[in-house]
Design a protein that fits this description.
The N terminus is likely disordered. The radius of gyration is 21 Å and the shape is globular. It is about 45% helix and about 15% strand. Strands 1, 2, 3, 4, 5, 6, 7, 8 and 9 form a nine-stranded mixed beta sheet that branches. β2 and β3 form a beta hairpin. The chain has about 400 residues and is α+β, with helices and mostly antiparallel strands. The chain folds into three domains: about 120 residues, Butyryl-Coa Dehydrogenase, subunit A, domain 1, CATH 1.10.540.10; about 100 residues, Butyryl-CoA Dehydrogenase, subunit A, domain 2, CATH 2.40.110.10; about 150 residues, Butyryl-CoA Dehydrogenase, subunit A, domain 3, CATH 1.20.140. The two termini are about 45 Å apart. GO terms for molecular function: acyl-CoA dehydrogenase activity; flavin adenine dinucleotide binding.
Amino acid sequence: MTVPQRTLRPMAGREQDHVSPEEILARAQAAAPLLRERSEEIERGRRLPQDVVELLRATGVFRVGMPKEWGGPELTFAQQCEVIEALSYGDASAGWCAMIGMDTWIYAGYLDQAVVDEMLADPDAITAGLIFPVGRADRVPGGYRVTGRWPFGSGVTHADWVVGGCAVYRDGAREPGPGGAPTNWRLMLARAGEFQQVDTWHTTGLAGSGSMDYQVTDLFVPEERSFDFMSSRRSGPLAAPDAFLSDAPGVPLGVARAALDHVRALASGRADRATGTPWPDSYRVQTVIGQAEMEITAARYAVYGTLNDLWQRLEADIEPTPDQQVSTALARVNAFRTARSVVSRLADLVGTASIYRTSPLDRWLRDAHTMCQHILAQEQIVQSAGAHLLGGTPQAPFPLGLRT
């Protein structure tokens, strides 16, 4: 249901603490047409304009993982994904940045209470940053000295907090991780202003996400502002190591649906040039639209079905079976690949009209291609799922939710 624009007023601090999951979704749906109107500007600027950031804040998207005991709405995995899908229907870059930025409260579950209290001062705080350990953190009294340069900092241009994954060193030597892991992988959290942004984000798609590099040299990070995904301070579904990945399929699903709805609307006024057959009566067009609808619907139900199943099991403190463990990851990969395939075939159907920058299909096609290059949609996730099912060695265990 579309909510009138007047409901999208920003609400500061505690006033919005008890906003419901249904209200957040309604606000995201109402924001979508506003984001669509700004898509060209967002892409051209290669980052989200500040008023668009504030529009996203006003939806409540950045607090969806805030637990109920802290006064938050604590959306389920499926509810989070649905919010991102609604925003991505308006603009892929805005949806992508929302998907990244809403991880604040999942990260908070791993942090010292004093840091959480500091973050609670702004319930709509935005987090950005790369979690993989490409930086270096040298142990010093009270914390770490951090140096590194991290790529793919989606949303770092407007974030409040920034994380950087690091390998920990002690006395100049790399420190082994828990359980005999070769590297002690920890995430370092700091205020965004403590990092320098490096404008590297010149891309084919998702151009408006501002996913540029960021770097720091010899930054002191206190121990309480560091964490790893092995030691959550809370229990339940949001403590799962892959909890922050659950909303990612919302972006491709939103883009695919936007593209299909656009072409369906376009079809009402078009006819085949060679035969004069109206598109609604064209067998060729009917088949493409029917196929696209079938594939999007199947991909969407796979995503939400597996997310709901995983949430219910984790909420009941039931360990997922290997099949259940990999199902959400495979549904996630499939959503990305299905979106790219569907948008590509829709662009082929529309033909040369889709190649111009004035056509949203051009942007959706580039966005879908770029997001499929993300590690979450790559072949190693499929390999890792197969390896886990067979009792072999996954190349990428973390996106499967495996702690080892």
